[in-house]
Description:
It is a single chain. This protein has helices at 31-34, 48-66, 81-89, 92-95, 99-116, 126-140, 142-161, 189-201, 205-217, 221-226, 262-272, 293-310, 313-316, 323-334, 339-346, 357-373; strands at 14-19, 22-27, 41-42, 232-237, 240-248, 255-259. The termini are far apart. The radius of gyration is 28 Å and the shape is elongated. It is built from 16 helices and six strands. The longest helix has 20 residues, at 142-161. With 386 residues, the protein is mainly α.
Amino acid sequence: MTARPPIPEKIPRLRQRRRGDGWRVWWEPTEEVKALGFDVVELDAARATWSAREARRLNAEVERRRKGGPAPKAPSRGRTIDNLAEEYRKSSAWKKLRPKTRSSYEGNLRLISRKWGQRLVVDFTKPVMFTWYETLAEASGKHQALALIRMMSILFAHAERIGWRPENTNPCTRLGAEVPKGRTRTASWPEYDALLAAAGAAGLPSMALAVQLAALSGATETMLVTAAIGEFQKVTVAEAEVWAWARTRTKRDTYAVLEVHPYAAAALEAAIAGRSDEGALLIDERTGRAYSPDLFRKRWAEIREAAAKACPSLDRTPLQFRDLRRTFGHWARAGGASTEDTGDVLGNSAAVDPRLREVYMATQFATARRAVLAIERPAEEGRKRA
């Protein structure tokens, strides 16, 4: 990358700064000029002649304003990345996203806006995106780099749909971005016990139940925060009365009915006992209200920190709540459940239409039940089996 600035001539208020991915060029008014109604205007290092001309035009506008001329018009940004993000938020694709996905996307869009917001959509090329990906991967890690490149790819795909870029010109396509290895962290039984003990000591049996349903039923945080009492009912299976949970998987929006593991049955009954409403299953004991995602994560961090004092491995390789869903799969497979049965709980097998649940419920319940009941605590060392 050249060390020479794109615009060699000296122009009042024109600023140029070298960055890791190229040059930033902008027009920056002084405080006195800002008081006249002017603001910072981003220019384009790739179009040095235009940028220099635009800087001189803005300076001429300042002189006219000082002589009593009209206030400057708000700069027209054209089809910038910020404009494109707003167009995407208005689209049907955005409206179909789940609230949690929208929240995640908003975080990525803020980071993208900070970096590229004023840049024109048509100016982006594959080399620019590849350089940014490599810079991100080195500075912020491969997970962050991939997330932002995917978000940019979604924006550019939308730009093609609305005619802001020609078809098949998405600069994020086939970048060769490396997909990082997924997490493999699962909980151990001592860690699981420490979490339950910490929740009990903190007076948060609702969080203890959440841990149990995640580790023993493969539930996600969203499933638990949105779980309603009406989703749980007692059914008779093989002449035994058990708790069944009829739920919709949040990742694939598919219907599932499965048995609640006997290890969690007592905690579930305690949560439901005396409740005549059909509201949220999990109620925060300190506020008396249903959990919001933020409050749930706050309580989880509290009990995980407390549990780590008794079980340091929770800190050595920090356990995330989502790891408990993976723990279910690990424990079920270790107990002898097949991949297919485990998939019926996690939702990794063929989806079942809720309208057809009366047809498919019996088979699905049976396969999911095998996976749930496959989980057993290992025998304690030194204790003989009966």
